[in-house]
Amino acid sequence: MLDRKEYILEARKAGKIVVMTFDGLASMDIKDFVDQPADGILYDLNRLEETTLTFIDDIKWVNDFAVALTIRELKSEITRLGNYAQHRIGCEFFDGKPCDCGLEE
Ligand SMILES: [Zn+2]
Predict the structure, then answer these.
(1) 53: CA distance to ligand 1 center in Å?
(2) 68 close to 56: Cβ distance less than 8 angstroms
């Protein structure tokens, strides 16, 4: 039987993420996992900022908090790039004129 570390490393090879839940270990497809909103990711990782701040006696909270901000920024950047791509394909690319779609930022 695989121990926890082997299980997690094997899951990674299969493109899965393993998280600890109230019911024990749970594995899911990493692409599906990161496709959810930042709040969902941070909740599933038990790293919502308000949760992390309850572990303030463990110095690990500093980097856990930074991870939350990093994930939020990366999700925001993904959205921004997606909007920009949609604008470029749907608006600017075809007529070259300024548009008011609101997606170009
Ligand atoms: Zn546009």
Answers:
(1) 40
(2) no
- The C-alpha atoms of residue 65 and residue 86 are separated, in whole angstroms, by 32
Domain boundaries, the chain: 1-35, 36-95
Place of tokens 């024990």: 24
Q: How far is the CA of 81 from the centre of ligand 1 (A)?
A: 13
Ligand 1 centroid – CA 83 distance (Å):
9
Over residues 45-55, the pLDDT tens digits come to 999 999 999 99
* pTM for this entry: 0.84
DSSP the chain: ---HHHHHHHHHHTTEEEEEETTEEEEEEHHHHHHS-HHHHHHHTT--HHHHGGGTTSTTHHHHHHHHHHHHHHHHHHHHHHHHHHHIIIIIHHH-S---SS---
| Residues in the chain, pLDDT under 50 | none
